[in-house]
Every structure is written in C-alpha cells, then in structure tokens.
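task queued by scheduler; priority normal; single chain, no ligands, no partner chains; default sampling; output format set to structure tokens
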Amino acid sequence: MTNLKRIYLLPEAEISDLYARPVFNQNEQQLYFELTQVELDTLGQFGTIKTKVHFILQLAYFKAKNQFFSFTFDDARADVDYVLAKFFKKTDGVFQGNITRQRINQQKQIILKLFDYQTRSMEQIIQVEAHIGELLRYYPKVHDAFRQLLVYLDNQKIVIPTYRSLQDMFTQSFVNERDRLDQLILLMPLGQQEQLSELIDREDGITKLNIIRADQKNFTYTAISAEVEKALELEGLYKFAKGFLPTLLLSKNAIRYYADIAGQYAASRLRRLDKPQQWLHGLCFIYYRYQQIMDNLITSFMYHTRAITVDAKAYAKKAAGEYHSGLVVDLPKLAKFLKWFPSRKSGLDHDELNQAAYKILPEGQFPALAQFLQGSTFDTKASMREFYFKSSRSFALYLRPILLAVPFVFYKEDNDIMALIDLMKMHYGSGKGPSTFKLPQDIEDTLSKTQLPYLKKDSDDAQVEPHLFEFFVYHKMYRRLDKGLLCCNESVSYCDIDHDLISDALVDDVEKIANEFGYPKIPIYCDERLDAALMTLDSTWNRTTKRISDGENLAFNIKEMKTGEQQDWSLGYDSLDKLDDAFFRTLSQVEIPSIMMYIGDHIGMWRSFTHMKTRYNKKKTPIVLAINACILSDAFGIGIEKMAEMSDLNYNLMRSTHEDFMRIETLCAANDMVGNLIHSLPIFKLWNIMDDKMLADADGQKLATSESTIQSRYSKKYLGKSPGLSIYTLIANFVAANAKNIGLNEYEGHALYDVIQGNKTNINIDMVTGDNHSLNKLNFVILDSIDVDYVPSIKDIKDAANNLYSVKTTDNYTGIIRSQGVIDKNLIKSKKRGILRVLLSLLLGGLCINAIFFA
C-alpha cells in the first residue's frame, strides 16, 4: 500500500457511528446486560469485581456492534453503575487502575468463542479481500460495496477490521478490478476500439459523444427523426456491447455506473483516462444510451398514437353533432315532402317530379333520413375511419420510422400482433410504399369480421386500405404497450419484466448465492417471513374487527339504523389545536439570501460547486454571491435574466456561473451537505413521530417547466395549459433527502425504490409513507428487503377502514386494505418462487438489499 493512495470510504460521521462505543439508554441496558446461563458460568472464571465488570461491559458492547472497544471505567460510568447494581448489588464503585492487556485479550478470546466469531488471521484477510473483489463487480460504488461487506462480515462471523485496514483492502481491490477489466477490454476487436475512441475525439467542433447524449427535446418530426438516426447509428455497436459486456462479468448496476460517468463527464475528462478505461466507459454508455433512445422512441410512439386517436374521437364527435343537427333541420322537410307527394300535381314528367321533390328535400339528405327511419344511428367508426384516412401522412412521418427502428416483442410467443408487426416491417422496411401493400389472406382471416369493413375504403373493396390498416396495427400496438404486454427488451422502461430478472434456473441455487453474499435468510424468506406477516395480518384483522364490534375503538362512531339490520358509521376527527407561535414571534425576520449565505459559509457548501471543465479554465471556484443568486433564481423560477435585473448583478457573470457550476451533481452534493447539517442539529429529532424510527414521506409535486423536454407533459388538472414535470421527493422531518424528476404521465410508485436507495445523506430512512400512487405489486417486497416499512397515508387508512367495516366475514379480506402494505394472500402462496427471483435479481443486479431480517 506504500505506492497507492488510500481511497475515501466513509465520511467522518459514518466512521464515528460505525466504530464508536455504544451508549445505551435504559431499555438497551436491560437488553444487552441480560446474561445467559453460559455467560454467567463464564463470568465465574474471573476473580475480582473489576475484571468481571469489564468482561460484562465488553460482552454487552460486542453483542451490540460485534466489535471490541478500548475504554476506561470512567468513560462508561453509567453502564458500570448499572452492572454493579444489577449483578453485585452495589450502588457505586470506584476501581483503581486499568485491566491488564493480557487480561483484556483473554476476555476477547472468550467472547469470540462464545459467539463463534473468527480471530484475525492472514487467511481471514485474504478471504475478505477476495469477497471485496467479488462485490466490486456488482457494486462499483464504494459506499454500496462497503454496506454489502458489513452484511458479509456479520454472516461469516468476522470482526469488522479497522477503518485503515478496510481502506487498504478496498484500495487494492479497486486496483485489481481495474486491471481485470483492462485486460478483458483489450481483447475487444480493433474496429470497435476505433469506434469508441471516435466518440470522444475532437478534431473540429462538437464530439460525437455530445451529440449522442443530447436527449430528445420534444415530439416533433425533427426530434424523432434525429433520435431514429442515433438509434440506427448505434445499433451495430450496441449489438456488439450486448454480446461483449457479459464477458466482463459486471452487474447491470455496474454497467449503469460506468455509463453514467461517460454521460456526465466532459469528453476532455474522458480523454485523460487510459485507453482501456475510455473504451469501458464508452461501451457501457453506448449499451445504456441505446436503451434510453428506445425508451424515447416508444414514448413518442405512444404520444402520437394517443394524440391521433383523441383527435379522431373529437372529429367523430363533431361529425355526429352535425349529423344530428342536420336531422333536426331536415325532419320537417321530410314531413312536408310526405304531405306533398300524394297531392302532387298530376302529369309531371320524371325531371319535373325530381325538381319539385328535391326543392322540398335536397337529394343528399334522403340516405341519412332513410337510415334514421330504419333505426340506424350515426356510424362513429366510419367517421373515425375517414379521419384516419385524412391523417395518413402523420403515420408515415411520426409512427412508421419508430416501427422500423424499435425491435418489439410480445411477452409470450405465438401472438397475432407480432405477425402484423412483422408484416409491416417487411413491407416498409424494404423501401416499398403503401400503394403496393397487399394483406395476405391468412392474416386477413385472423381479423374480426366486424372490424374488417372499416379497414377498407369502400365495403366492396377486395383489399384493405393500406393507411387504415397501418393505423389499425399501430392502435393495437398502443393498447398492448399500455398494458405491458408488448415490450422492447432493448429498452429500459418498456422491457419485459421477465427479461429484466435473472434466469429462473438460478432460483435453484438460491441457498448458495445467498450464503456467498451474506444473506442466509433469503431462501426461507417466503416460508417464514411472509408466513409470519400473514399470521400477523390475520390476528390484526380479528383484533381490529372485534374492537370495532365491541365499541372499544373510539375513533369509529357507530349508529344503529332504524331497521336494526344495518349500522351507519363514521370516523371521528381530532380537534384542531390552536397553533402556539409564541416562540416564533420572538424571532426576527431574515432575508432568504442571507440565510443561504450563512448556511453556505457555515458548512462550506460553495465547495461542492465545481467547474464543468477540469482544465483550461481560469475560474476554478464560483463567486459566492453569483452562485447564490443562480440557486435562488432557479428555485423561484424567475430565471437569471430577471434575477440580474432585480439584484443589480452583472448578467454575463450570472450566465457564465450558471453554465459552468450549476448542474445536477453539484446541486445534489450541496443539498446533501445542507441535509446533513440539519440532521446533526438537536432540533431535528424533535420532529420525529417515533423515537426509534425515522418516518419519511414520498410524493410528487407538479411544476410547470420553462423549457420543452420529452418529459414535460400536459395535465389540465394540475397545470392548466402549461407543460410540466412531477418532482418526486423523499421528505424526512421537512428535509428533502432525495428527489427525482418524472413525467406527469409516469407512475410514481415505479420511482419509490430509487429515491429511497439513492438517498446519500446521513438520514437513514426506516419507514416511508405515501398515497396510492406510491404502490405497485413489487414495492412491498422490495421495501421489505431493504428494511423499510411502508405506512399508509391518513386518507388511505380511512379508505381502508371503510372497506374493513363493510366486510362482514373475516375470511373475505383478500386484496382489501392493499394501501396498508398488505400483500395479497393468494399472491404469496402462488408466487413464492417469483418473489425469490425478484430478490436474487436485486442482489445480483447490484442493488442493495441490506435488511435486518436477512442479516
């Protein structure tokens, strides 16, 4: 380690928390100082009270943290007094001198033997180093790998090494992992090496990397065409990456990690890396970026298909209104015609008769009135067919290129939609136009007999109209994509979940894999953990319904109906106490910029705002006043131009500061520093709802966007006519621990795990609450696996209470109160193997699942 610089493993606060001697409260003293009979017998080996007290203390501290600590009796005075009173019936005691080192080592060996822990040896060090090297393939971020190592050490019953030893192990393991990857990357063919080098090479103008990582801005034809071109350009390199990356033995999380570096770093920073590292980051970036492009294209496909369908319905509705209004106008004319016809003037020839009749009722209205009299109504499908035919150019511009570029698959084999997609791709992919399209008879036979006439321009036509049939296929694709049946396994969000999970065959090796990573309880998770949860649910259900029936639950106001057969009920509401703001009235008002400046100077927050360029720049650090103004201008949504006018700051200074220093990583780093500061203050714990657990809330806030992006969507309910985003935020005691931008059309529950697991502050989340939008079928299992409890919101509890009271039998509760985190009873019984597959996919995919009940 003399030639290697030790890596940064943990912040000082976490180091202190990990290696600090436990400080017990009264309840913890009762728990950890309770000795078993074996421990009491072992205590008899020591003669003096001083050595016995020291042994009991060291034993209790080892139970709490599986470590040994150096301390004096004065350091642990509260624990010493408790031990003397509990075991020796003494109220106080002062011990002269310290325990000898030989005696301390003897006690350590005894404790290790009692708990079957291993002593430190070279063999143990080699074992731990080998496991760290294995972890880095799954968890390339050092903090995640370190957490997993702690789980492994606990499972293997190995005492946690010193921080310096862990630093040395991780530093050497990172070097070994880099050498391993470099050797494998050098096996890449020369052609692919040159293509990856061209991404960051800059001869003139902008690099290819910058062009590729520029995200789709909107759903216009130009934006979609550019995205399709990027997909086609990357397709060859992506297919190579798809076959080559598995040889590197990296998890999906590790590939994403290396891809993010290439996506965030400037090309100049990547050029400073060694060639193998450049190629590694570039290949991972191409692999992940191609999948993101597929996401963008499918999202664009869904957007335009839905827009065309909505416009077609509006067109048909308008046509129906004109049709019915025409009937109202023409029916009196029909009555006049019927009265006129029997009493018409005799001797009229054919032309004179027509002229007189059509003067009363126009010729074009006869078919519509005849259909009306026959009982026929307005044909909405025919009207929509007319609109689709008029919109055929939109299909060719917006939808057809996506169909040809995206490799769609159905979640199961032998489905009719894939035959239609393949037919369309074969015809238009070969450069043919709609005029030469002919529908094969075998496919026509599979179409609905009621739908087929609407795919023809005239019902008597032998062949379907190409444009109508084209949108018919697109609409079927849209409905199946929306339901998750039609997928693209080369995308991130639209991938088949079965493709995302590990092979089902690996579930047979669950015990071996779980033990290697230090999670021996994964194999019995479904049998014990979930069965215990069901038993708790059953007992809670019975107890709750009994308390309601017996009138013990005062929150339920039950009133007998006059019939006596039913009961009416309502929930009681707590009275609102008047806010006592006497303390806050004494505080002087302070301007927000002043608060920002004070906090920034106090914690050194400005250091987190680093320059976008790592070299060839004169301004290494930002001007504090300018960076503060940029933060507030974005926070208030007024923009830097208006802020410059209001604050009399130089606009060019603010513009350059905003471009060079304001980006996601710097803002997140600054937010984490502020969150850690608030967490360290004594007042932070005063907001805790529970003394021993941290409850957080996850919810989305809808905000309008000033710039157009592919995520910006319209929501009449929240934003009126403006596009915007949903800021899905994890709040803990009024501190934003993490946040994620999602589209208004995206489901919030899909991002719940991300915001919890991506929390980089010192605030450890134990429980999380949210509304029904935070739920999906996997979240309960996944949150349980990372030791986070889901707590329903007050509204969810009230809705659940309504269902609870309305169910008369205790057996009929399957699926009820799902908002309270109850897993469907039948789902547990029938999907145990699937749940194990999900947990192993999280583990082998490089996602942390540190859970107390696993360790």
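post-processing summary
- The CA atoms of residues 190 and 753 lie 40 Å apart.
- The two ends are 32 Å apart (CA to CA).
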